[in-house]
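quick one if you have a minute, typing this from the bus. theres a chain ive been looking at and ive put its sequence and its fold in token form underneath. please have a look and point out which stretches look like helix strand or loop to you. anything you notice is useful, everything is just below.

***
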Amino acid sequence: MEKGNGARTMHKILIVEDEPDIAELIAFNLDRAGYTTVIAHDGISGLDTALVEEPDLILLDLMLPGKDGFSVFKDLRRDSRTSRTPVIMLDRPCSDRGPYPGP
């Protein structure tokens, strides 16, 4: 769908977050705002879900089990189905898991 100014209207948002409470809170608020949400709880299922669902936006945690967010992001950019999908990376600056080691 197109808005009057030519911008694409977002409908489906994929949330890739391993903390169920955080994922559900994000989904709850987005659902209330009228978006359709899909949740994946690890990097591998997040990538698989993105390729199948082809969401309009991906919210991607950096610290994920199975495959970290940076690796998922690189794989998303390599695939034509998701190469142009906007991605917002999520991080917790004060994590009990310690600092993220980086790519």
The longest helix spans residues 20-32. The first strand starts at residue 12 and ends at 16.
